Each structure stands twice: as structure tokens, then as C-alpha cells.
Amino acid sequence: MRHTYFVDVLLPLHLQAYYTYRVPFEYNDDIQVGQRVVVQFGKKRIYSALVRRIHENVPKYTTKYILAIMDLEPVVTEMQFLFWEWMASYYMCYTGDVMAAAFPTALKLTSESYIAVHPDFDGAYSDLSPNETKVLEALSHAGSLPIEQVTDVVGFQKIMPLIQSMIDKRIIIMDEELKQRFTPKVATHLVLNPRYDDAEELRSLFDRLEKKVSLHKQLSVLMLFMQMSKFGKEKIRKQELVAHKELSQSAIATLIKNEVLLQEEHVESRLKEYAAQTSVDTIELNEQQQRAFEHLSDPSQPTVMLLHGVTSSGKTEVYIKLIDKTLREGKQVLFLLPEIALTAQIINRIRKYFGHQVGVYHSRFNPNERAEVWNRTLDPGPNGYQILIGARSALFLPFHSLGLIIVDEEHDSSYKQYEPTPRYQCRDAAIYLAHLCGARTVLGSATPSLESFYNAQRGKYGYAQLTERYGGLMMPEVVCVNMKEAQQRGEVQAKYFSLFLVTQIQQALVNHEQVILFQNRRGFSLRIVCDDCDWTPTCEHCDVSLVYHKSTNSLRCHYCGYSIPVPSECPQCHTSHLHAKGFGTEHVEEDLAVLFPEARIARMDLDSTQQKKRYLEIINDFEDHNIDILVGTQMVTKGLDFNNVSVVGILSADNLISFPDFRSYERAFQQIVQVSGRAGRHGKRGTVIIQTYNPWHQAIRDAMQNDYASMYRTQVQERLVFKYPPHYKLIEVVLRHRDRETVYTAAHRYAQWLRADYPHQVMGPEYPSVSRIRNQYLMKIMVRFERTAPLTHHKQRMLDLADTLTKEPSFTRVTIQFDVDPQ
Q1: What pLDDT digit, counting tens, does each position of 122-176 carry?
Q2: Rounded to an integer, what is the distance from CA 183 to the centroid of its chain?
Q3: What separation in angstroms does the CA of 717 have from each of 696, 754, 760, 763?
């Protein structure tokens, strides 16, 4: 008796539920949970969905059949489904949202709309308009065209009226075609025909080619091939032979045609393989490191451990020992980093010991490379990855035996995902993933987040500490420069450089040492202002001023990307008295070139690292001493290890401490300490210069003394008084709409409903500091709950109220977003 099976599938869409499809009888023996299946969703759209459950429960409605099974084996594990479902529940979104963020683009299938000539079209071109003729001529050559390409054919963007008109006239038809994005990399190899394994046959071949002058080009090709293939014993890539420009390409083609050389197609990895260079046993831990390693490895300790080590204390060596121990137990390791820029140095250090076992996963990889890493993470065989290094997206990889998660620089705000949904905190999600997998988690930082240190103090997390720099190095000397006094004494050059900082940079350059300068603003200047009427150019789509970028001579919005050329005059008063105010990394780079014309200067920020490997090139050049001064935003503060940096300058500490956020004190302390830690790591003591107009601010004083305990005591008490984390949990609600009045009314209505349930826990609604982004007005509401309160019920109540609000006719187009544990 044949069973009638149904599957509940997950689609990568903003949808609340799983959808049920029927399994054709011929697929009964093949269908498995975690496979991709092709389904029709709606009237025409076709997607790849993931099978979540297989059952025999007949729905009360007519179901569609799945159209195909795409995989022989599952590509998503049961543990991943559980993790995605937890993430959707905790961060108040849909599981489809999580799948869309987690699943590699190349493994998703979507249908594309194609057009083709209608079978009943009579070929009467004389009745067609010029644009209709262009489309038909293109179709006569191509057979069918995706709609996106019609734009190129006719030369304008709004093509749908034209296409609809041609469909109505029965000139063309439109259909859906499934697009497979992931394609294995296939390379052509050349191998010597086996008949020439016989020495006499091979000698005869060489004699024949040598006797005729016209065949000498083939002889040259064959001789080089024999050399490259170790006398025909190995195959070689065809491209490697073709790359020799001195060879005749036609001679290569003739040898292949005559079957002297045979072509073979082989699937190749897009990812370069690396061999280990040395053993982990060569690492000698000092007494503190050994004690920390043993403590972190102790099974009697909590499964989540905080490693609190000062900068350059040798945390990475402890990580490597922990990784080695985990691999020996037959388990996989996930090594998380906050920034892609950090991965380059860590990858090289980890590969030095573990070679081809190391995989890397982040957004700078192309879709096919990411899909290959996904598949090799899932593979338990010899080609599979045992160690995965990456930024927050690596959290979603399909581990088959996860044993350890390391979250380096765990305090970093880059671990928080803001857009798009899900808005998750990678560190916290990693802890839950480790819990699901029965793995251990190690959180590492020189400046732990208050939440992590609070948990360690309460005994929820284990705690290990490294208080000294590795090799007995001294912590850098930290000097604070009062910029107000420096200006009064005339000791400021190029507006933003104190004389003391300039002198220190000059001395470092004389000693052939390197300098890092930190300015947490990119662009040339923060804004342009008219001296006569105070006009400032603003974004058309956001309520912010435009940032001046001198390299492109443009004014740019850092929220939506809107850009305009720099005006030659003020559009309000028509004077040319426009001046740049404030300074960013571009401005610093330009001024340095004037102050130190002989120095080699580079900039590392979001603008200068847009190209795939540019950040790696900058880091390598700095490591190789091809750069004397490196200017950067927060990219330069995070865990980078350079052996020749003697001076670090923080150009404007006031930007860090004046931010309107309850975490600004903590973050200012963290960033100052972190960037200070780049100085003097491998030799003599380094120097850190902090420029500020407020030298007595407690965050700066604590950072100068590297006094984490003082910062923690101050902040944890203050947050208890004002009911902020780590004592309370926060949920931020953001309402968006194109009309300011609509979003204002909706936000106040929603806040009123929330206060009925939580009378003393709701703050707002308020307009944020940037109240309009991409033509959408925003209002924010903050709801806080006691740390021990069970939030599942409260979250569902908030979601239900939001659903009720958006069903009202006036608010159907209001978007409501939830951010749990906002950063």
C-alpha cells in the first residue's frame, strides 16, 4: 500500500507559517527533512523551499504538489531548524526572515519572468511600433528573454507598459522559469592518451612530429606538456598550458583533435587549499595563559566562559590550544569575529597550525564561494571543514558536530545585526546555538561588555583573566592632550593636530616606526555650511546633512546613499562662501600629506575598502612596513596585531563620549582602550595620545588607567538606578510610514495600548535623532522588563497589539519593527 505523504515547508519570505504541500508517490522514498524542494507559491511564482516535517495528516484544503526534489541529502540540519525557530521567537520575527538571512543566496531558487514570441503571432512587423520591433528582433535571436534584459533592448527603464501592451496584442507571452544560482566550478584538464603509455608508441609520435617542420609547433606543445605532467603521468589544467603565450593555440587544438591529448572535465573547489606549517605543540603558554587554558577547558566550569585579557596578552594562543583540544575530540569549532577586516590576520594564524581544516565565511565572498563553504561545513568527510572563521553570518552554517564557539572581541557592537530582519545579537545567539549543540562557548575581550562581565560576576558564566602582556611587555604610556589649552597656546597644527602629537609622529618616522591615527568619522568633513546664511545641504530622503567626500567631490548621505555634486555657490543667498566644518578620515589623510610629505599614508574605512580584497591589501602593506601612517575609523581599533606601531593617536575622543546613548561611556572606554592596545605590541613601550576638550571625563580617565573595574562599578550602579541592562531587558519598537502625521498617530495609539498592560515600563514614543530615513518617518517606543521576567508572553502580546494596529484602515501601511536587546 502506497502512503500519501505531505510536507510542511519553509519559504525564505516574510511569512508567519509553514506551508503544506503533497508529495508525489514517485518521491515517497526520496523525500527527507532538510532537503530543498521546488514548489509553486501563488499563481506563478516558483521557489525552493526547505522540508521541515513529513507527515500523513491530510489538510482541510486542496494542496499543491511539490514539483521536484533538488538534493540527494539534506542541506539543513535539524539543529539549524531549531536554532532558526528560537531566533524567530526571541527576536520577534518570522522563521522565513531567518531563513532568508541564513541560507546562502546561491542555494536559493527563485523564478524569473521571461518573455517569448506568442505562438499565434503572424509575423506582421509592419504593424509594430519601433520599440515592439526591437523586442521581437531580440527574441528572434535569443528565443526568450528575462524581463530585466528588455530594458537594455529598448533603452529605457519603465518597460512594463510596453510588455503588457504586447501581451494584450498577443505578440508575446510571459512565463516563469526557475533559476539555479549555484553552479559547481568545472575545469578542463588534459591527459596523455593511454596508448602512449607504450614507450614505442610515444617514441614514434615524437619522431613523426620532429621530421616535419610544419609539425614543430605541436612538438613544442607536447614537450612542455610532458614536462608539466611529469612525463604524462599526471593530468594538468588546460588553462595552465594555454597560458604559455609562446605556444601555438592552434597546435594545442590539433593535438586535442587528433586525440594525442584527451580532455577531461573535473569539478574544482573555488576555495584555495592551505597546508599547516607547524604543530600546535610549538606554542608555549606562559603561566597565566596555561592557567586560563586549564580553567576554560575544565568540564566542571559553566559552559559559557569569559576570557578577560588585556590587549596583547596572548588570548589567540589560548584559543588555538582550545581549538586543538576540540579537534582531537572529533568536534568542529566556530571562531567568530566582529569585522571582516579582522579575519585576514586571524585566518593566517589559525591556518598556520590547522591548514586545510580551516574554512572562512563572510559577506565579501561571492555567492558560489559561500555555497561551497556551506556544503563543506556540512560534510563530515576528509574534504569537510572542521574550523570555521567568520563574521556574524558564519553563525548560520550547518555544523554536524559543533564542540566549541569562540566569540573574539565579544563586546563589539558590530555583532549586532540591524538591517534587515532578524535583528539579532550574534554573541547571545552563539551562546544559544552552543547550548543546542552541547558545545562550549568562550567569550574573549580586553574590554568585556557590561552584560558579559555582570554574568561572570554572578556566576552564570565562568571567568578567566590575563592581566599581563605576553612576553613581559609594558602597557603603552597614555597621554591626554587638552585641546582647548593647546589652542590657547598656539600648539595646534592643521586645526586638528596638537603639537605634541605631531612631535611624536615625527619621532616615530625618524625611528622607522609606524603610526595609527583613529578618527571615528569617514568622509572629508561632516558638512558644508554657508558663512553668510548658515545654509547646510541636506538629504532629500533623510533628515540629515550630507557629508562632504573630497575624493569624489560629492556630498553624500550615509543613510541612503543619496549623492550630489558640491555646489559652487549657496542656492539660498548665491554667495560662494561655503566652508567645510568638522573633519573625517579623508581630511586627516590630506592634512597628514602636508605635515609629513615624505611619509607613506593610507586610509582604512568603509569608503576605502569597498573592493573585495582592498582591506586585506591595506593590512598586508601595513604589516610589510609599506605604510608609515594608517588613518582609520573603528576598523583600526579591533584586534589587529602589528609589530612596529609605536604611536597611536585618538584625534577626537569627544566624538566618542558625547553620543546620546546610555552605552556611550562604556563604548568610549572600550574604543579608547582597544585602539590604545595597538601600540607597542612586539618591542619597546608604545605611546598613546588622546586629544580631547574634556580631559576630566571619567571615561577618559578610566581608559588612561586601563581601569575596567572602575568603569564597571560606575556604570553598573548607574544603570540599576535608571533601569537599563544588565539589570533590565529592553525591547525597542520602531514605527515607519511615509506620512509624518500617520506615524505620529499610530505610535501614540500603540504606546497607549502598551501602557494599559505595562503602565510603568513604556518610554516614548519619541522621534529618534534622525527622524526620517529613505522617505520614511520614524518614531520609537522603548519597553523595559525586569531581567528575570519571562518574556515570551509579553513579546506575543506586543506582536498581537501590532497586528491589531496595522489592521486598522488608517494604519495598514505602517511598518512596525521590533528590536530585542537594542544596541
Answers
A1: 777 777 888 888 888 888 777 778 766 787 788 776 676 787 788 778 888 776 6
A2: 22
A3: 20, 28, 20, 21
